[in-house]
Amino acid sequence: MREEVVCRASPSLALVKYWGKQSTRKNLPATPSLAVTLGGIYTRTRVKTAPSDSIRLNEQPAELDRFSHLFDTLRRVAGRDVGFQVETENNFPSSAGLASSSSGFAALTVACARILELDLSAAQLSALARTGSASAARSLFGGFTLLPAGGHRAEQLYGPEYWPELRILIALVSHRAKAVSSRDAMEATRETSPYYRAWLRNAGELLGPALRALEKRDIEALGTVARLSYSRMHAALLASSPPVLYWLPATVAVIRECAHLRAEGIGAWETLDAGPQVKILCLDSDVEVIRERLGALDPQLQLIVAPVGEGPVCE
Fold this sequence. Notes:
single chain; alpha+beta; Ribosomal Protein S5, domain 2; Alpha-Beta Plaits; 2 domains; 16 strands
């Protein structure tokens, strides 16, 4: 058994959104999700063996409740009674709508499995990571991934090299952690939103067009579906009781600017998760003009350009 492992993993951005759980206990998604791994931003996790479990996230103690099931499962699979001392940090804002749980649980799962010297496939690691965060099942792979509705693990559809011209321009409109966690907002939507059932049905209907667009590397078709997916997800959120609204004025401004850019023939296709940050699908040839326009819109806006990313890497 190793004494220390360091692993990095990148977040997974859903283009067709996962929102809702088929099983809360097993953390199985109620909707299918088609996603791309974001290169250049990552969670870095250091795991050491210890007498008991402990976690520090960005140098602050974290509650163990959400991690205990994963730890116990790994110990049971390995047949070892060992504690995990975890130090993890993100090079991007945490709990702010950038899928930090996907990269966090992916890095943690791989690092702990390496500590225990478990010989597990990426599919098996994906299923383990899903128990902590369903989107983490996708972060076990680079490139483009699919997590089916009710799926225990994700699958890689295409590797990072499949679409080398694709970029995701991230507009960071706020560095603050969101007031309502994704898990709480997801449950609120399921329990109180009159649009939730329609959302579940429609999410499945969007998957086919998205897969065909990805197969053709048609950014306009894929971007159109991605916009429909996030818009309908947030409509269900807004219809919850009480309403959940993650958007800020700067969020709306960026969304409107993307519409202006598209009207001028520039491919800027935005999507949002449970948070205020805007992610814009575009081609490398359009990045600079989009950056210039968003910079003129708000000189304080922080912009990150992400290529299609790789899967987890252990240092």
